[in-house]
Design brief:
By secondary structure, the protein is mainly α. Helix content is 76%, strand content 0%.
Amino acid sequence: MNVLPIILGMAAVTYAPRLAGLWLRVEVPPFWQRFLRFVPIAAFSALVVPALPGERGEAGVRLFAALLAAVATWRFRKLWLGILVGMAAYWLLR
């Protein structure tokens, strides 16, 4: 089975609404602007949380690093800083 049509189809489904929004130049209501501000952090959390228990019994280290990352993200409101703090904490605590 050739995966290229599947990849192209997924790309079309992903980018068609974005391009339509740019072409239509519709003003996004304030409710949706507030709602969409939380999408990146929610998507990132959905990717990270299932991996917290770990594979080699390092759940405590991972949870503590995640806690430090969450505090940094909450305090400074920068997702990149939370990722940096979490990765550094995990690396140092291992």
